[in-house]
Amino acid sequence: APALAGKADNTIRFAYDQAPESVDPFFNNVRIGVIIGQHVWDTLVYRDPNTNEYKGQLATAWRQIDDRTIEFDLRQGVKFHNGEEFDADDVVYTMNFISKPENKVVTQANVSWIEKAEKVDKYKVRISTKQVFPAAIEYLAGPVVIHPNEYYEKVGPKGQNDKPVGSGPYKVTNYVPGKSITLEKNADYFKDSPKPQPKIGKMDIRFIPDRQTQMAEAISDGVDFIMHVPKDQAEQLEAVPTLQVVSGETMRIVFMQMNTLEGTPAPALKDERVRKAIIHAIDREGMVKSIVGAGSRVINTICFPSQFGCTDEGATRYPYDPAKAKQLLAEAGYPNGLQLDIVAYRERNQTEALIGHLQAVGIKTNLRFLQYAAMREQVASNKAMLTHQTWGSFSVNDVSAATSNYFGFRSEDITRDPQVRDLLTKGDTSVDPQVRKASYREALKIIADKAYAVPLYSLPVYYVATSDLNFKAYPDEMPRFWEMTWK
Amino acid sequence: MTDTILSVQTVAEASPGMRLARRFLGQKAFVIGAGILAVIITLALLAPLIAPHDPYAQNLALRNVPPVWYAKGSWLHPLGTDQLGRDYLSRVLYGARISLLIGISIVLISGIIGTTLGLMAGYFGGKMDLLVTFLVTTRLAMPLILVALAVVAMVGGSLWIVILVLGLLKWDRFAVVMRSATQQVRSLDYVAAAEAAGASTTRIILREVLPNIAPHLIVVATLEAASAILLEAALSFLGLGVQPPLPSWGLMISEAKAYMFFSFWLIAIPGSALALLIFAINLAGDGLRDVISPEGRV
Amino acid sequence: MIGYILKRLGLALLVALAVSAITFFLLRLSGDVALAIAGEGAQKEDLDLIRKTYGLDRPLVVQYVDWLWQTLQGNFGTSLYFKTDVSRLVLDKLPTTIILGFTALGFALLISIPLGVLAAVYANSWIDRLALAIAVVGQALPNFFFALILVMVFSITLRWLPVSGSGTWLHFIMPTIALGYYVAPAFMRLIRAGMIEVLSADYIRTARAKGLPTHKVIFKHALRNAVVPVVALTAVQLGFLLGGSVVIETIFALDGLGYLAYQSITYKDFPVMQIIVLLLSILYVLLTLASDIANAWLDPRIRVA
Amino acid sequence: MTTLLEARDLTRSFEVSQGMFKARRKLHAVNGISLDIRKGEVLGIVGESGCGKSTLARMLLGLLPPTEGGITLDGTDIRTLGRKGMARRVQPVFQDPYSSLNPRRIVASIVALPLEVHGIGTAAERRKQALEILDKVGLPQRFADRYPRELSGGQRQRVAIARALVMNPEVVVCDEPTSALDVSVQSQILNLLMDLRRELGLTYVFISHNLAVVEHIATRVAVMYLGRVVELAETETLFRTPRHPYTKALLASVLTPEPGQGIPETGLGLAFPDPLNPAPGCPFHPRCPARMPHCSTTVPRLLQLGRDAVACHLHDPGQSIPSTQ
Amino acid sequence: MSEAILEVGGLSVDIATPRGALHAVRDISFSVKSGETLCLVGESGCGKSMTSLAIMDLLPKAATRTARRLAFAGEDLGKASRKRVNALRGDRMAMIFQEPMTALNPAYTIGNQLVEAYRQHCSASEAEARERAVYLLGKVGIASAAQRLGQYPHQLSGGLRQRVMIAMALMCGPDLLIADEPTTALDVTIQAQILRLLADLQRELGIAMVLITHDLGIVARIADRVAVMYAGQIVEEGPTASLFANPRHPYTQGLIDCIPVPGRTVPGGKLGVIPGVVPSLIGEIRGCSFRDRCSHARDICAATVPVKETEDGHQWRCILENAV
Ligand SMILES: Nc1ncnc2c1ncn2[C@@H]1O[C@H](COP(=O)(O)OP(=O)(O)OP(=O)(O)O)[C@@H](O)[C@H]1O
Ligand SMILES: Nc1ncnc2c1ncn2[C@@H]1O[C@H](COP(=O)(O)OP(=O)(O)OP(=O)(O)O)[C@@H](O)[C@H]1O
Ligand SMILES: [Mg+2]
Ligand SMILES: [Mg+2]
């Protein structure tokens, strides 16, 4: 029954639209997995979301030993939920486990940079990277959590999923795959953690796929917290007195790709004028204002502004100008417009708006709305023309996690400019921040000048919560329940 | 049989066509159903002429305008606009075309498959019948929505994919009904008489059997069209059907459900349109069946 | 009798085999599993690795035979998405769906039998028309639309029923209605048609000629015979309900097989999809077998002493 | 008289299922019948319901392949004649005038169907020919464009006869052509059939369960019981001196409209003929008032007695020694 | 002769059809005394079944019954309540239907169906009812009756089923038995057996019987009195012998003429015919309904035709005094 819960029994009921494939953060690649991961586990390093400053979490201090090695001093007296003590063995075990491809960690991009970890003494370890990898600390402050080695060795990833054990502020007390997961406050959470001691006693996370059902639950006081509410609905829910709506910018950027590869199904896109016409056709400000919503901003390069190395300095901007778009199309030999396919996988209403804008300048598009995997297949097999993409960089605050993914000749890259690739690689693998910044800037400028992609905007996230709750939204789409309190 | 003898003189007055028409018109349900259906079909055909706006033209400045009967509504958009500022009336009108197209195309595909199978099974019997019965059982054993969803999810939804997938999956009822109808007709003496007259099997199937089971075919076709339209709507509702910006009613419901708690009309309009269409088709189909076999309103 | 049942079970096996083969090839041909497993951001090397570890680089037929062999041994594999045993996952969810299927069926029968009998006994009266109207309107409302309206009314406005979940019996009320009302008209029509046919049968006239009171004629002599085809329909409809619970379970976040099926479809979780389809098809065939046996029990002409 | 159509050891069995839980069984609808149909005669076939009359008729028409035995027409196996070849020479008239006419065709088109199939003449010529033959069977022109449902039973049966005659066949196989009709209509049809026979020199196989009708129309009669011919004789002989006990019982059961005679006692027991479980030995013995011990063990053979034949132990002294088994 | 057990006076049955009221039975009158057998004979569709159903109050919904008098053993059935009719039906007036194959409920054993009426009307115990059922099954010539009680209808042959139907009709010892074509669906040999059985029982129990048939042969052999129906009317009625020896109505004459009778008709020769077809019963019918098929028809036939009668109770509805 809906009545009994919430503030009264210090439980927060949180509904999310997707169930994680596994609770183990290394074996899922969804947002809810990241959220659960950060509550149940700890990382070596903690990035303060307010100041973006790195703090020690399971590590107390770290230092660069050489270009590819970092040494960590570990915190003493930390215990996992099952009582196992935290020490260097846990770190070494975890790092070595996840770095081995045969262990089939799902989030390869998050771990493939790790070469190995070595124990120096009980509370000191060294982690080395395969190449020079400046973003290592950022990753260690995000997706790379530390597992208890004895338990993990015993039960393996499957056991860790069935009965997860971490060291974080919350522990898993009940998990029904696909249905719900219950977290309870870890009363023994170590005092010195940069994550504050949790106030809310229990988190009841249910997976409700249908957003309207979620909304109905929120309205009828069946849940206390939902997120990723579309703008229009969030604005409507603001009218419900028992609810509060908070929005925040996220690192997720939205952009369109245009296939200019050899053998592209849309040769027209090889013409720079056509690509520029497409960018000019889209009213990004208008979309941000009326569809995407507060907390969103228009971007001009394919990265999130707060990411290290991200800039639109010197990059060409393409204002909304349908007349110019039409003119460019005419110049390119398409006075009567043209027909293109577009593939997309989420934010369907935004795709529809894009289609509308393109249609207005004479570009008819045929939407193929696919599951992410199917869309990727289209892209990777050179069958896509236009894509409507979003990219969250796994909340990694570094351009290497964003632009490089789409312009570094990986399978997602459907422009393949070697010059851009070389610049990005240089940025990804240099130690000197200035060198990195310069190469990224140059790469981003080329991408913009040649109109290789359509930068659109960043995606905000709307949270709807019971009005009893104090909470704050952060750009990494991470609700931090450990710091929330009841009003 | 007594009836027939006695009716000789009375029936001589009206031509058979007239009498059939009278029988149809005597069916209130059929008249209502067919009437509504006719209106919907006319509106659908005339959509380009009567739609006040381009159903695809968006206007982000005029989003979610309520219909005219709300205080904030205006005659510019009699049924309001949707979340992208597109005229709702125009979309509903064009949506009728899509729903009808879906119903008709799916029924055409599945009807051809099912009727062929049913005719073969019913006419030839024996091994052919066993084979077709097995195929039908297999098809019935496959959870339709699930398989359709899965395939559409894999291939990617689009109008023609949905039509193809459902068309290839929904032939079972045709096969079952056509099989038993054929069996019935096959055992009648006029088929034997045609055989005895030397008519070839193909000829008998096409000229003697098919015309006599056609009424059943039409009834099944109407009811299947309704169910196909509903099924497409369900797929679209789950996001795995027709793709935007096509104004399919199922898709419109799916898109509007996000607004249902505060702008109920957005979901109510396509929802009622869909319900009305299905209602009309079913009513007409029912009436048709009653006219054809007044006893069995199954 | 035993021979017949064995024959039918053999047929069930054959059907299950055919269904599994069709779905296996259909699904494998329409998309790439490896990509589905890999998820967002995977690279070519990852895909190759996945293909190798999951054996997806082998010919399809080999994969199917292998899958079949494993399944026959009771090894249903591991969910690609949830990483747990498919059997555990499915077994966990099955009860919810079975409960929902039966409550929906019960609900449908509960409203359709009385309505159908009334409509037949008072054929062409206003009662009949009303019942017909209920049936036609019932079939015209898409069930997802109806479900949403139920939520609007009972959860949002009246706040009587919880929106989603499967914790208490209260959670089952709306899904039961939403699912059951859609098949009720089919039952009603069948019962009506059956009753009308039976009521005009010679043996009903015999019963009346014997001077039996009306209720005895209707309930003893007529209903018993009219209900026979309903049993057959019940099996089909239960199968349909189980399959059709995808939409309803998804809307009500009811943690059953239908919802699992929807999830497995969106996550391209082939092992789970395969087993659910297989399970539902076997269930369907067993249900039809059960209904045939029930029919035989009801109809002495089939039973044969 | 020359033999036109000849059946040799004709047997037809069906696989029938009796409910779901029972194994399918073999039913011998026709069991080793040999007959010769002579040019110009009317061979009457009588027997109770289910004794295989229609099955025999369908085989004679080439509509049903026999499981054993064969049929020849003028000495050629009818299988080699093919459907069209048979159609030109042997035509049917069925029992039920309601199901023997395609309800979606008008009368003229029904009658012209055989012509159409054989590609004879143009559409107009075919119609003309159909109208002529309709006139011959006593249906005025105005019926030509009606649908069967607008005709009475007798009128329909006339259409069926017209269709059978339009190809000028030699043999017409009538399977209970009047049993669905009222007596007043029956006499019209019988008269018509007799007239046509005289006029066109037709040969009839006339199947009926009505002995009075058979006696009236047939020149020779075969009596069937459970798939076998038990007696075959010239009509007069058969009705004057029936030999088989079953024939006698049949004759006794005929209720002529003669008041005061009361209902005859047939002398038959309560057993009823079940084609699925035919009695061993003589199939009629369970009901036979004159049964002897060996009747239940030995199947009587069809004994030729001059031009007639009978299958009964009473008339077959050569077989009176029971083959004990 | 005893009292008339059934009196029918001016009985009409109209059936509502989409094309108007169908006058299935038009103003017919007859009566049956105890121990007497009356045969209603006529061609298909002439209203025989409707007459019997009207008496039993079993008409289909679309049909309405009107009668000047409809009395059973002196009691007016037209005024009797539904309950009263139910009490009489199956108890004192019983009916046997044409199709033995479908007149028994396939879902129940014949024992169940036999005892049902008896228990309903005679408030007997199950055991008593079964005993009576066994007795009657024996009476209608069914051996090992006790075992038969547990069998289902489909396990019996048509002849046996019709016997069961007869036993069922006799369960409560009725005064009136209406048999609507009880042997039409049976083979000739079995027909003879069943008719004989019926005749014997009727005589033995002294029941009044109304037997409906289209077969003049049956009529001749079993009836005391005959009523010939044509197009919803009784056109001729009289004692069997008199009617067959001296048919007065052209229709009766025609009927008798068109049956081939061994010995009387010439084999292969012409049979008598009645030209034309039965008229439609829908709409108003005036005058003699047989006139457009009758060779004696004259203008006055279009007016209401008087009923003529001889002393022995032979009545006919024709302008002619005598058969031609
Ligand atoms: N297609 C069939 N399949 C199974 N059994 C059949 C088939 N056709 C005929 N029979 C059976 O064969 C037997 C003879 O049938 P047939 O129709 O020849 O009898 P009949 O003498 O014409 O009977 P009736 O007088 O009732 O027409 C019957 O027991 C019948 O049930
Ligand atoms: N339910 C009905 N609806 C309409 N007309 C009916 C109905 N039942 C019977 N009739 C008509 O009523 C007339 C008399 O029918 P009835 O059944 O009494 O004839 P019958 O003499 O018993 O014929 P049969 O010998 O065929 O049984 C016929 O014209 C018939 O068509
Ligand atoms: Mg036959
Ligand atoms: Mg009758």
Automatic annotation (TrEMBL), chain B:
Q: Which CDD domains match?
A: TM_PBP2
Q: Where on the tree of life does the source sit, at the highest rank?
A: Bacteria
Per UniProt, which keywords does this protein have? Answer: Cell membrane, Membrane, Peptide transport, Protein transport, Transmembrane, Transmembrane helix, Transport
Q: What is its main location?
A: membrane
Q: Name one Pfam family in it.
A: BPD_transp_1
Q: Where in the cell is it found?
A: Cell membrane
Name a single GO cellular component.
Answer: plasma membrane
Provide the transmembrane region boundaries: 29-51, 98-124, 144-169, 213-238, 258-281
Q: Which parts of the sequence belong to the ABC transmembrane type-1 domain?
A: 96-285
Q: Name one GO biological process term.
A: protein transport
Instruction: Answer yes or no on keyword rRNA processing.
Output: no
Membrane disposition: Multi-pass membrane protein
Q: Which InterPro entries match?
A: BP-dependent_transpt_permease, MetI-like, MetI-like_sf, OppC_N
Checking PANTHER family in the record gives: D,D-DIPEPTIDE TRANSPORT SYSTEM PERMEASE PROTEIN DDPC-RELATED (PTHR43386:SF1), OLIGOPEPTIDE TRANSPORT SYSTEM PERMEASE PROTEIN APPC (PTHR43386)
Family to which this protein belongs: Belongs to the binding-protein-dependent transport system permease family.
Q: What protein name does the entry list? A: Peptide ABC transporter permease
UniProtKB/TrEMBL annotation, chain C:
* Lipid bilayer topology: Multi-pass membrane protein
**CDD domains reported in the protein's UniProt record:** TM_PBP2
Subcellular location per UniProt equals: Cell membrane
PROSITE patterns, per the entry: ABC_TM1 (PS50928)
Q: Which Gene3D superfamilies match?
A: MetI-like (1.10.3720.10)
Show the stretches that span the lipid bilayer: 98-123, 130-156, 168-187, 226-252, 272-298
Offer one Pfam family short name for this entry.
BPD_transp_1_N
Domain ABC transmembrane type-1 spans what residues?
Answer: 94-291
Q: Name one GO cellular component term.
A: plasma membrane
**What family classification does the UniProt entry report for this protein?**
Belongs to the binding-protein-dependent transport system permease family.
Q: Which UniProt keywords apply?
A: Cell membrane, Membrane, Transmembrane, Transmembrane helix, Transport
From which organism does this entry originate?
Microvirga aerophila
Protein name (record)? Peptide ABC transporter permease
| UniProt-recorded Gene Ontology molecular function terms | dipeptide transmembrane transporter activity
UniProtKB/TrEMBL annotation, chain D:
Q: How does it sit in the membrane?
A: Peripheral membrane protein
Q: Which UniProt keywords apply?
A: ATP-binding, Nucleotide-binding, Transport
| SMART domains named among the record's database cross-references | AAA
GO molecular function terms listed in the Swiss-Prot or TrEMBL record: ATP binding; ATP hydrolysis activity
State the superkingdom.
Answer: Bacteria
Domain ABC transporter as annotated: residue spans: 5-251
The entry's protein name is ABC transporter ATP-binding protein
What taxonomic classification does the UniProt entry list for its organism?
Bacteria, Pseudomonadati, Pseudomonadota, Alphaproteobacteria, Hyphomicrobiales
UniProtKB/TrEMBL annotation, chain E:
Which PANTHER family does the protein's record reference?
DIPEPTIDE TRANSPORT ATP-BINDING PROTEIN DPPD, OLIGOPEPTIDE TRANSPORT ATP-BINDING PROTEIN APPD
Indicate where this protein is primarily found: membrane
Q: Write down the InterPro entries for this protein, in alphabetical order.
A: AAA+_ATPase, ABC_Ni/Peptide_Import, ABC_transporter-like_ATP-bd, Oligopep_ABC_C, P-loop_NTPase
**Which parts of the chain span the membrane according to its record?**
none
Q: Give the source's domain of life in one word.
A: Bacteria
| Organism, as annotated | Microvirga aerophila
Q: How does it sit in the bilayer?
A: Peripheral membrane protein
Keyword annotations from UniProtKB, A to Z: ATP-binding, Cell membrane, Membrane, Nucleotide-binding, Transport
The Gene Ontology CC terms held by the record are: plasma membrane
The residue ranges of the ABC transporter domain are 6-256
Q: What is the lineage of its organism?
A: Bacteria, Pseudomonadati, Pseudomonadota, Alphaproteobacteria, Hyphomicrobiales
Q: What is this protein called?
A: ABC transporter ATP-binding protein
Q: Where in the cell is it found?
A: Cell inner membrane
